Amino acid sequence: MRAVRLVHSSDLHVEDAGPHAPPRQAAAGIAGLAAVLDTARAVRADLVLLAGDTFDHARVGDAMLSRATALIAAASLPVVLLPGNHDAALPDCLFRRAGLLGLPQVTVLGVNAGTALFDDLGLEIWGRAHEGADALDPLGPPPPRRTRWQVAVAHGHYVPAEEWRWQSHRAWRIADEALRAARADYVALGHWDRAVRVGPPEVEAHYSGSPDMAGTVQLVTLAPEGVAVRRERLRIAEGGCP
What we know:
By secondary structure, the protein is α/β, with parallel strands linked by helices. 20% of the residues lie in helices and 26% in strands.
């Protein structure tokens, strides 16, 4: 079985320019999406995984949604998205309005599929979508393993065991026990702007960080000899930045 390569990013916060988002800030979101997709093509990734908050809010305008959908369609790569707290999987969610569900290579977890299954890669990706402002366990129990590789994706705030009691005010907490219980080969996390590995040493759990703050994506290689994770600097193809 050949190695599987995936690019993991999160927290792009694609949005329109407006009172709460100056033009430069708004441009960073769509430029970040373009850069993530360009980088995935450059490293010959098999797929892209976006771990929440691809969009900044449910009111993103149709023109910006169309730009984002066009970029994803042009990438010609499978893309798996997890709705986060900013772009929750509401009945009228913007993933539907954007037309993303009409793209055969796109899976929005919790919206058009419960998991993303790639039989040709021996890979299944699962995660729990945010469905509103209510608190939830960002991971939840894993599905039965039916592929060689299983990747979990979650959007929330990792809290180490020694800080759990005094960080009870935080929503969407992720504990060491939840990371272990996922039993995944890789746990793709979103919600933090910085790229960092977290959790128990035996678990490959990583925040990708946002493209504009981290300047990188996580390049994950799933191979028979083991799982390798490295930060890959974002690239922009010629003419690739909108």
